Automatic annotation (TrEMBL), chains A, B:
Keywords from the named record: ATP-binding, Kinase, Magnesium, Metal-binding, Nucleotide-binding, Thiamine biosynthesis, Transferase
Organism phylogeny: Bacteria, Pseudomonadati, Bacteroidota, Cytophagia, Cytophagales
Entry protein name: Thiamine-monophosphate kinase
Binding site for substrate: 60, 286, 338
GO molecular function per UniProt: ATP binding; magnesium ion binding; thiamine-phosphate kinase activity
Domain PurM-like C-terminal: 161-318
Pathway: Cofactor biosynthesis; thiamine diphosphate biosynthesis; thiamine diphosphate from thiamine phosphate: step 1/1
Gene field: thiL
EC number: 2.7.4.16
InterPro entries: PurM-like_C_dom, PurM-like_C_sf, PurM-like_N, PurM-like_N_sf, ThiL-like
Other comments on record: Reaction mechanism of ThiL seems to utilize a direct, inline transfer of the gamma-phosphate of ATP to TMP rather than a phosphorylated enzyme intermediate.
Domain PurM-like N-terminal: 35-148
Amino acid sequence: MTAYTPLSELGEFGLIKLIKDKVELRNSSTIKGIGDDAAVIEPSEKQIVVSSDMLLEGIHFDLAFCPLKHVGYKAVAVNVSDIAAMNATPTQITVNIALGARYTVEAVEELYEGIRLACENYNVDLVGGDTTSSRTGLIISITAIGEVAKGEAVLRSGAKENDLICVTGDLGAAYLGLQILEREKQAFLANPEMQPELDEKQYIIGRQLRPEARMDVIHDLKERDIKPTSMIDVSDGLASELFHICAQSGVGATIFKDNLPADEQMLEAALEFNLDPITCILNGGEDYELLFTVALSDYDKVKNHPDISIIGKITDKSEGINLANKHGQSFPLQAQGWKHF
Amino acid sequence: MTAYTPLSELGEFGLIKLIKDKVELRNSSTIKGIGDDAAVIEPSEKQIVVSSDMLLEGIHFDLAFCPLKHVGYKAVAVNVSDIAAMNATPTQITVNIALGARYTVEAVEELYEGIRLACENYNVDLVGGDTTSSRTGLIISITAIGEVAKGEAVLRSGAKENDLICVTGDLGAAYLGLQILEREKQAFLANPEMQPELDEKQYIIGRQLRPEARMDVIHDLKERDIKPTSMIDVSDGLASELFHICAQSGVGATIFKDNLPADEQMLEAALEFNLDPITCILNGGEDYELLFTVALSDYDKVKNHPDISIIGKITDKSEGINLANKHGQSFPLQAQGWKHF
């Protein structure tokens, strides 16, 4: 039987020490990490990019089915994903956490094990943050810092008419993974004896619980000498992100329905839940893939990439944002995204 | 009568636009602010410092007596204070907020008015962040970025034997301001007709509700060519911060009780609450003054500064951390700080 230690036994400074002792620094730009009023970073000739996201228990994750280690990993990954979407390399993060009274030292260790693992995988240094108590559940607020050579940052505003619209991986799976987890939670609450059969859903559940930032694609694009003209990560849903790119670039877009990348498990789950798979792909969100545009002249460089789908083209603004089917019919695209309020 | 607009009418993107439209950029290092996956910053030859803090309603502030504008101002000021404590100049912040369902657009505008005012006063650019919903109250997580010339950052670890221990302003007032506000809240709850008489307490209440980061002192030290050997800001309390400096510098310290800076209103309030004023000064916290050490050779430069008190000296580690009275008697100092868990 595992012994559990209440946080009060450790105290705030004990907790900070516990976190600090497990931190390894990997980046030469990290001059001073945890343990002072602020971290010190030396980006030398580079520009730095900064992004920040907050995840709340009960809003962004449900501890009924999301292990704390995955919560920690995901909190880092979604921030790294924003850095990736700038065509930058993540270097440091700060982590602020608020913990409810029911949290034990072991729970916090599990959370930070996920954070540590993500730092290792993305080669990022945890350099600071804040720990405090919460009257409700767990709150994690992460700020990620990355570096990029001057002129190499890719904004949302650079898409030009005739550019190709590309997306990495497949879409909609994270949303359907969440539907399955929610259903299993309800089934478990109704009958705690029931054992869920989730083997055939592992991929889509994994997409929800432990998404990855596509730093692999960022490195790969660099190797292939492709610089996207615009880029954004898919957190709210493909349609919503495309609207951001079009609005900020002052362009329109046509997406080809048949080119949208879908995973087999996602399609089966959509059928099971009686959901339109195209809607899941367009509006599902939380896939953390990269949506980007490249110049038409880069077509040969991207066309055979196993992990990149060419899903459409940038048009003149006056044409609007449309979804086209194989019969050449075109319909205006709707962006749902997430409504927080 | 003021009309109130529910946040749901505005939506997340409407809220982001509302925030973005009021932002002014002041620093040439801010290349790209709000509106992309990450902000882009170009610190040129400088090092950057990064600090992050989270404030929760019901834990760090009480909206019963703390206006939202002050909450916004304070959230920025406490982060800027950490940047100041590194001997750095703040340049950018990111702001993550989570809002409960009862918040109106007008309330969010008031909060951001405080943030905007602090950005103006400290010459800081709001460059990004995240807005989300909360099942409970307001949560604000801010990351502040600053710049400092290479080699000029002041850490907690540089104090040397015989250094002078200095502190800015006066201490203990923020803590007593909080006691008064808590008492008036209870009195109001017991009898809503009662009008509090707070005119004579304005200074100490202001110290609690709207603290300032001592960037003025940082600029002043630079002008006088004083570089502290170690520095920290007083958030948890003087004693607790002194313990950090001594632990990280591997030294001891003696504080002279009679040199501790106290404000008249604070002393009166301590009497009123039957609290030992020295305990309030040593452990009160939230004053956001700067505690720093300077070489003995800088004595002439600091001795007549109107806003700096020389409160002690650094000793060998073996002597421990002590409080000395005018009769030469010395007692080991206790650090209480804040217990979050």
